[in-house]
Structure formats: C-alpha cells, structure tokens
Amino acid sequence: MNDNNTLSLSIMSGKGGVGKTNIVLNLGYALHGAEMTSMLMDCDLGLANLDVLLGISPERTLHDLLQTGVDAEDVLVAIENGFDMLPATSGVPELVEMDEDMQDILFKKLINLAGEYDFLMLDLGAGISHTVLSFASLTQLRIVVVTPEPTSLTDSYAMIKVLVTQHGVKDFLVLVNQATSAGEAKQTFERLSAACKNFLNIDLRNLGFIHQDSTLVESVRRQTPLLKFAPNAQASKDIKGIAKKLMRYRDDNLERISGRAILKDFPTP
Amino acid sequence: MPKENNITFPQNELATELAMLQKELGSHFDSSNGSKLAESLWVFRQIEGLSTEQWDSLSSKHDLAQWITLPLDGDAFPHLNRLQKTLERLAYQTEHDPLTGLANRRAFDRILDIEMERSKRAKTPLSLAIFDLDNFKKVNDTYGHPKGDEVLVEFAKKLQESTRRYDLAARFGGEEFSLIMAGSGLVKAQRLLTRLLKEFKEIEFEIPEGNGTFNVTCSVGLTCYKGSVNIEISELIELADGALYEAKQAGKDQVKVSRLPFVDNVPDDTLVHANEKQFLFGGK
Lengths: 269, 284
Description:
The structure holds two protein chains of two kinds.
Chain A: E1 7-12, H1 20-33, E2 38-43, H2 50-54, H3 62-65, H4 72-75, E3 77-80, E4 83-86, H5 93-96, H6 100-114, E5 119-124, H7 130-138, E6 141-146, H8 150-167, E7 173-179, H9 182-200, E8 205-211, H10 214-221, H11 226-229, H12 234-252, H13 254-259
Parallel strand pairs in A: 1-5, 1-6, 2-4, 2-5, 6-7, 7-8
Antiparallel strand pairs in A: 3-4
Helix pairs in contact in A: 1-12, 7-8, 8-9
Chain B: H1 12-26, H2 52-62, H3 77-95, H4 105-122, E1 126-133, H5 136-143, H6 145-162, E2 168-173, E3 176-182, H7 186-201, E4 205-206, E5 213-214, E6 218-225, H8 233-249, E7 255-257, H9 262-265, H10 274-280
Parallel strand pairs in B: 6-7
Antiparallel strand pairs in B: 1-3, 1-6, 2-3, 4-5
Helix pairs in contact in B: 5-6, 6-7
C-alpha cells in the first residue's frame, strides 16, 4: 500500500505570511541535499506561491489535472533530480473551495506518483477554509508554522481547535519561525502547547525553530531558495536541522508509515 | 375549476343521495391496516339519462370530484382524458391557493423543508420572507370583499413578477403571504423586497362606485438561514414572523430583518473563547 514508505506532511498556519512556503521549499532542498526524494504540492489553491519563489512560471497547474486526459506527470515540474513540485493556479476563486468530487479526482491522479517519493509535502493556504482542513486531515503528519506574534499564535490555536473538534485530528508538530532567540521560540511553543493541553487536552510536539534571518528576505527577492542562495545562513542551518528531524522520524517509524495510506481515504491500488 | 352552470339534473335528490352515500362510505375507509391491502370494492351504479355536462354540474356543486364516471354509450377513451384532467386539477388544488394561484401553506411547508435540507447540505443561504398587507381589514370593510380580493390578486401578481423561477411564493391565508428565496442571502433578499414593496404601493386601486383611487402598503419580516445550525422549519418561520411583528410595530410599510441569534450561528465547539486567548497571551 505504501511500499516506498512515503511520509506525507501538511505544512499549515492559521495566519498568512508566517513563512510557510519558504519553509516547504527549503525543507525540500534540505531533503534533496540529504539524498531524499520529495514532491511538493502547492495547495494554496487559487493563490499559488511556490512557483514564484522558484522564479518559474509553469504552463500547467493542478487546475489542469481536473481535466480528463491530463495526468500528474504532465503537471509535475522538476526542481532538481528527485525533487519535484506540483504548481497551483493563481486567480481561480473556484479552486479555493474544492468540493469532494474535485479532491477525489485530484488525489486519485496523484497518489500513485506520490508513492514514488520519500516525502510528500502539501503547502496549504493559510486560514481555516474547508479545503485546508480536509487536506490537513488527509496527511500522516501536520506541521503548524507559528511565529512569536500574538496574532499568529491565536490563529494557529483556532486552526488546531477546529481540526481537533471537527476533524478528530489530534497530532500536530509545531515549528516556530522568525524567532529572535531560542528563548522566544521556547516561550512561543510553550504558550501554544499549554493552551492546547489545557483546553483541548492534546499534546503538541515541538519540531524546533528557525531564526529570523534577513538573508531570507533577500533570497525571496532574488527568487532563489535560501538554501541555494545562502547555505550557511543561520536560517539555512535551522532548516537543515528540521529536515534531519523529519528524516529521523521517518526512519524511526518506517513500519507505521508503510502500514498506512499515504493520504487517508486514498489508498494506492 | 368548472364553472357553475344552470343545468340541473332532473333527479335532484340523486345528488343528496350521493352525498349521503359518500359520507357513509367514507367511514368504511380503514387506514389502520397499512401492511396488507385492506379489502376494497369498486362500486358502480348506472344512472340513466345523466349526461357528462350534468354530472360536471352535480360534481362541482356537491364536491364529488373524486367519483369516477364512464359513459356507457360511445367511446370510453376520450373519457379517460377527462379523468386524467380531473386528477391533475385535484392535485393542483391540494397545493395551490384558489384565489391567487400561488402555492398554499401545504406546498410552502413541503418546499421549505426541502430547501432547508439543501441549505444544510450545501451551506448555501436561504432567505424567508413573510408578508402581511397593512390595514387590510379596512380595505375589506370600506370597499367590500371583491375589492379586497382584487388587492390580494394584484399583490400575488407582483410577488410572482419580482421573484426568480426557483423562488417560491405562497399565500398563507388571509392577507398573509410568504416567499422562499433559495440561494439568496439577506442583502439580495432585502433589495428584492424593498423594490417589491415600492412597486406594490404604487398600484392605484379604483374605489368602487366612487371617484379616485386608493393604495395599499405591506409589511415584511425577513430572516436568513445558512445551514450551519440545526433548526426546525417552525423556528425559521417564527423568526420571520417576529421580524414581521417588528415591521408592524415600527409603523408598517417596511422590511425588518431578524437574524438567527449570533451564538446559535457559531458552532460553539470550534469557537475560540476569551479565556483561551488570554491563556495564549501569557495571562491566566
């Protein structure tokens, strides 16, 4: 069912602009550097960003996959060897709220291809739209990206609460981004974690943090991934550390991962 | 409906007899035996000299529309067409108001039930308006009931004209009407209703046997369902009714909106409460 032990991850955040897409892209690079294959899927449907960070403008997008005769291979864009992405569409409001039929078509076409990678990462849009919530509950793991700002904290908490109460999802990994210090990152995680423990009775897992880093802003402007632009920047090192943790998690849980569908409800034939 | 005409069947007592028989037979109808078919009979009786036209007259006078007739001379098949037409008319009558031709309360309840289910499933808005013509009793008392009926018919016409094909306009009875607007939220619905009220009050009704004209205004209560909470049909109607009452209190000739209480609109299990926020900000 999951012969290659593909680990599927949703990268999500309650609030927009916390650095989700940059994290996904650079995690992909870090995994590639460690000779792991991964497929990134830009799931910010309707307002795509992943392609922009790479400085590419793909001709075909996830939108095309909804048409008959178009397969996942036709839409896939190779970033590096063994590191591919599926670009989303910008400016199609109909895609923001994807109904069940559309999701079904999309994932049935993708699932076999996804099974050929070590990692499948879904870069979800911000917020708590129906699409975001249902995608998040499909993957094996969820990474909630949060910054020390109170607005980010509240929005992430609200998103977790909806997933817990409405979708029965209980396991979340928290990644603190744009932290000025280890202490600030710790405090951010602990606040969110304590609230979740106290009110929702769930334990969050700490995936670590990424330092605030001005080189990241520069890399975005140059449409070059940070790990390529400044591999030795503090944020780059942090991201590599996070990637290592994910690889370790995958290694430690191979048996569990292979026994589960890559995406819930979409078993590979 | 067949027009009442002056043909009277020679044996007028037959009508009385049929009516009595109908009453008597009605008491034999046993609906308790639902699982297996209850014993039943077709009862035929040949009435010589009765023509189709005469039966129509009898049937409309004495409410015998459910009786089946078959001519014994000539071809029976054209008569089956009559039978079909009668069935269609009866079916129409069960769901329509005879005066205005709008749906009646029964059809309204059925459609509202379907639309609320659809709204729940698809999370699409559903607006419900209840209308009451202002000071209608005075119209009846001053200008007579035929004039009152004319006002009702005109209002029904305006209502039909201003709505879309998939809206349902119904007459609740008396001077009360309703409108189900599937897929419309409050803003769209309010716009439609305001225009409808304005156009209706511009209609000039002629004063019978007198000079001049008069106008009639209307009050509306509006509410909107978004499918997010479980409420009964009756609760939605009560909300619209409450708004209608407010419109009357506020001086009539206007639309008032009554929203589902905010707390009911929000699923409490996912709502982030103040204490949770305080906790996140480091307070206790």
